[in-house]
Amino acid sequence: MSYDMWIILTGALVGAACGIIGTFLVLRKMAMIADAISHTVLLGIVGAFLVSQTLEGPFMLIGAVITGLLTTFFIQVLDSSGVQTDAAIGVVFTALFSVGVILVSLFARNVHLDVDHVLMGDITFIPFHTIEWNGMTLGPKAFWLIAVVLVIDIVFITVMYKELKITSFDPAMAFALGLPVTALHYLFMSMVSITTVASFDSVGAILVVAMLIVPPSTAYLLTDRLLFMILYSAAIGAASAVIGYYIAQWLNVSIAGSMASTTGILFLLAFLFAPQHGIIAKRLARRLSVTES
Amino acid sequence: MKTAVNVEKITVAYKKTPVLQDVTFSIPEGQLVGIIGPNGAGKSTLLKSILQLVPKTAGDVSIKGKTVQQQRKLIGYVPQRGDVDWDFPTNALDVVLMGRYGHIGWFKRPKKKDKEHALSCLDKVGMKAYADRQISQLSGGQQQRVFLARALAQDASIYFMDEPFAGVDAATERAIIALLNELKKQGKTVLVVHHDLQTAEEYFDWLLLLNKHLIASGPVSKTFTTDLLQKTYGGKLAFLSSS
Ligand SMILES: Nc1ncnc2c1ncn2[C@@H]1O[C@H](COP(=O)(O)OP(=O)(O)OP(=O)(O)O)[C@@H](O)[C@H]1O
Ligand SMILES: [Mg+2]
Predict the structure, then answer these.
(1) Count of other CB atoms within 10 angstroms of residue A106
(2) Single pTM value for the model
(3) Is B84 in the A-facing interface, judged by CB distances under 8 Å?
(4) Which of B43, B72, B186, B193 is the most exposed place for a label (fewest CB within 10 A)?
């Protein structure tokens, strides 16, 4: 397969995985926590590197899960001891992230792990780091990493669909039914963490938030059903990646930036033209009801 | 008569200020119970602490002689309507189906018979025609009915309802009360947070008068007295004028 094809495919999988997981982030009103996690997992990546001396996928995922859970836990602790939620997020986010930055500059200077790369991602180089097996080249590591994570995400959402739904809609009711609401919350945050890390190579820490939040918000405008929101969000995420790639080629600009901007453009389109929840449809409906009465 | 709910000396505090102190009562099975008290009296907090949704500083709760944890399946809860996100992408039937989740079990999907059961519960509250309606497109009273249908779908034997009459019209209120009486006839116990003193005497068998402390708990004939009501509401007025 051509380099371009690998880049596009990897980007599309990132868009789909983030779109799926992001749907529940948006519904749980946790966009800012996602932003925090997308940065603090840097600490997890460095930690995993220091322990294992490699940047292999499984170690990165484990490191990500650990820091993702720590982030969630610390925010929870501050929050429940009386700190405002947004301040709690800000404190934990910057504290853990800065430790990560320091560790990178201390220990990991020589490896392919500079802060720029983690923050901005660099999908252009993805095809050069490949997986070999029995002398065969199986394709880019980044592709396989996000493919595995996407499968994990899909299995997770399928198996836990009704549990995720009720804990997002009505956590009190879920608790009253005897569901382990807190454990589910942490499990979900682990999924957010591994999805974030697996997306880093492509879009980086800053823009992964766009992939996590914007496609679900777009899908939210297009449907009133949870299942469709998930599916649309995945499709919109993948489409943003593909369209963004071509726009980047055409204008010769950053691919990651272009993908993220595309999510924004699609959101704007839905915001204006969505059949029920778009503002044009709403205006028309209002005008109709005015002329009718 | 057997005891449905037994509460022993519970105290609840949010961030150190106690909002419920030393509340003790027990409620016999098959009663329709009104929980009455001024705003901020701790009525919602009482329900939430019984269901372990907020931590207690002290005290014990038992449901039919066992812990709440052991009796989850017997308990139905109708939260205050403002407690959930009505813009959530889901329809009325789906919300009612959530009442079945405790019976369906982990990882499994609702079956056809769960859906039929949920539909029949919607029917009982007069909302069958709205099964496919997105929940944000329901009126406040209709949302309240959906919540009620969800509680019915739980097939519980003890119900805790937080202001099910808030924002519903008189006809709906009558319909809900008829439904609660039906539950009572089936031997179920229903605890209802209620604000309207005009109707309290007519609706309920038993009253809990609450204002941070328990003022009284007992059959309506013994508790619906000017004296006790003064004590329940008057304390608050005195507090207001002194501050
Ligand atoms: N999450 C919370 N954190 C801090 N204080 C709280 C919280 N929830 C309730 N309170 C306080 O606890 C007290 C009791 O509240 P509660 O909601 O139980 O009252 P209520 O009797 O249900 O009132 P209402 O009739 O207005 O619904 C109030 O003073 C309220 O301010
Ligand atoms: Mg209340």
Answers:
(1) 10
(2) 0.88
(3) yes
(4) B186
